[in-house]
Amino acid sequence: MGYHILLNYRSNHSEAQVARELVQQHGVECELLPFDVASKAQTDEVLGGWVEANKGKSIAVLVNNAGIREDNLFIWMTEEQWKGVISTSLDSFFYVTKHVINDMLAARFGRVINIVSLSGQKGLPGQTNYSSAKAGLIGATKALAQEVARRGITVNAVAPGFIKTDMTGDLNEKELVNMIPMRRFGQPEEVAEAVGFLASPGSSYITGEVLSINGGLYS
After folding, report:
1. Quick check: is 218 in a domain?
2. Residue 192 has what pLDDT?
3. Which InterPro entries does the entry link to (predicted)?
């Protein structure tokens, strides 16, 4: 789509380099920003430092895509499992978006796209922490959308179901596909296409919405 990319990641340097090379093949720049989005201190230092050092530039599109799973039945869930999942999905939205939204308001344009989950829409057993985090992010999406709409900024969410990624690698795909009307897991590219649409001019009158990508599993 022609956007220059700031690519955040926490620790996987080798795969970040691969992603950077793939982005650059499209003739755009890709700058790596390694930091833990669940850490206010790291976010302030790295992202805040980038914003401060690049006064002539602005981030037009923000995709909040962080999330981890620490599944357990609630009665056995530890405080660490609760706080880790909540912080990675929900606190990160607050820390990162705070550094980006002011420039969007000044420019009177912006796209904030939050990656949530089917789990945050219907709740899934063993994922009280993850369902809570993503449901909270859906609420934040709807609230912030109303606050910034007058300034030409849209805030939307994308809610994937079962997508073939590292996060779902430990799940029993053969069993789970029987629950899905399309009888398959989704591909990352199918989620990316939806994110691209919400970043495009064609979505300029859509805000505060949650777009489900789940093969018909839940609507």
Report:
1. no
2. 95
3. NAD(P)-bd_dom_sf, SDR, SDR_fam
DSSP string for the chain? ----EEEEESS-HHHHHHHHHHHHTTT--EEEEE--TT-HHHHHHHHHHHHHH-TT----EEEE---------GGG--HHHHHHHHIIIIIHHHHHHHHHHHHHHHHT-EEEEEE--HHHHH--TT-HHHHHHHHHHHHHHHHHHHHHGGGTEEEEEEEE-SBSSGGGTTS-HHHHGGGSTT-S-B-HHHHHHHHHHHHSGGGTT--S-EEEESTTS--
pLDDT tens-place string over residues 41-61: 999 999 999 999 998 898 999
Strands 153-160 and 210-213: parallel
Tell whether 55 and 93 lie within a shared domain. yes
- Looking at the fold, whether 61 and 12 belong to one and the same domain comes out as no
Separation between Cα atoms, residue 26 and residue 157, nearest integer Å: 26
Residues present in the chain in total? 219
Q: Does the CA dihedral 24-57-9-151 come out positive or negative? A: negative
Q: Are 34 and 46 in contact (CB under 8 A)?
A: yes
- Report the percentage of the chain scoring pLDDT > 90: 83
Residues 76 and 4 in one domain: no
Give the catalytic positions in this structure. 130
Residue 98 in domain: yes
Q: How confident is the model at residue 201 (pLDDT cuts 50, 70, 90)?
A: very high
